[in-house]
Amino acid sequence: MSEPDPIVFVVDDDASVRESVQRLISSVKLRVQTFGSTRDFLASKRPDAPACLVLDVRLPDASGLELQRDLAEAGVQIPIIFITGHADVPMTVQAMKAGAVEFLTKPFRGQELLDAIQQAIAKDRVAWNQRTQMAELRSRYDTLTAREKEVMKLVAAGLLNKQIGADLGASELTIKTHRGRVMEKMRAESLADLVRMAEKLGISSIE
Predict the structure, then answer these.
(1) pTM exceeds 0.70, yes or no
(2) Residue 88 maps to which CATH number?
(3) Three-state SS at 133
(4) Which residues of 159-189 are buried (b: 16+ CB within 10 A; e: fewer)?
(5) Is the pLDDT of residue 182 over 80?
(6) What per-residue confidence (pLDDT) applies to 81?
């Protein structure tokens, strides 16, 4: 799967701020979507692509800090850049401790925001690729039969075909066939490659 173009989400209840930030981001050829509230943002269908969130702290419904917490609790990993006209030190510390990329006080220079956005997207691009690769790996693993999964686990644990056959009550030739299918379905180029895949999937140990 080729990597889609990154996107920047902007959540701010001030329409003039949304418009100016949208123009700024569009000027560097980045996709951008704007929202007037956290509710609108959460209700939207967001594209699966590297992204970041430019988020106002004070909003009419849930605050930006509450949205940051809710996204974290829901397992939604998206780098956040906070913008605010009313910054205070405890608020900034709370946001940064919770993983915010940057905390900008209005009025800020456009280049400051663009630099923070590029940093956030670079961070999410790495995470997006890792998530995509992991999803692809799980998809391949799901194509294995129950017996092939057993064989993969034992191969990854370092057992020889003969040992696996004894363990599963099958001939060495049958295990060799299963092993070949596992390598093919998982698209593993070597035993070391298959072992790495098993480790990522959390199936490389024998209870």
Answers:
(1) yes
(2) 3.40.50.2300
(3) helix
(4) bebeebbeeeebeeebbeebbebbbebbebe
(5) yes
(6) 95
